[in-house]
Amino acid sequence: MPAKKTKAAFHAVWPTAWGPMGAAAGPRGLTRLVLPHYQADDLAELLAWECPGSARSDEPFQEIAELSRAYFNGRTVDFGSVSCDLPGENTFMGKVLRACRQVPYGQTVSYGELARRVGRPDAARAVASGMSKNPIPLVIPCHRVTYADGRLGGFSAPGGVAVKRRMLALEAGGA
Questions:
Q1: How many CB atoms lie within 10 A of CB 81?
Q2: What is the CATH number of the domain that holds 104?
């Protein structure tokens, strides 16, 4: 799902074991991360279109490129050091995205539990809706959020639920 156009200073594309990834960033950190799905040239064009006026530069993305390569090679990775440009800390989505960032590698949490963690136990559907709009998957690991009964739920990144399943299997040591 293409993100809305965003203000970003830079964008880049890099290879991983699962295919090319890309990102855009502004002064406060990542604004967009695209999981492997596209050809490198197509991904670069998509990011340039989504982020008008941004410059293509690998330098601002060295850390995320290194971490994502390790991740897609099956290594346990913590993306906590990666700066992200998120909604305000006092907004519902800001709270949800920050809480999602705390879900550890190899673990899952339900939409309802994530809602409880942000003080809104009645907001599981709103959490699910917010996860579907997450512009920074992997770093904000929305793939680790499932239904309470363990069903995977949705995944709006290109490749959909099949990619979510594959990422969870990778984290469980099986892919």
A1: 9
A2: 1.10.10.10
pLDDT digits (tens, 9 = 90+) for 7-64: 779 999 999 999 999 999 999 999 999 999 889 999 999 999 999 999 999 999 999 9
Give the domain extent around 66. Answer: 10-72
CATH number at residue 38: 3.30.160
Q: Which residue from 108, 149, 111 is spatially nearest to 132, judged by alpha carbons?
A: 111
Measure the CA dihedral 136/138/142/147, to 10°.
160
Let me know if residue 24 belongs to a domain.
Answer: yes
| Active-site residue list | 142
Q: From CA 122, how far away is CA 135, in angstroms rounded? A: 24
10 Å Cβ neighbour count for 48? 16
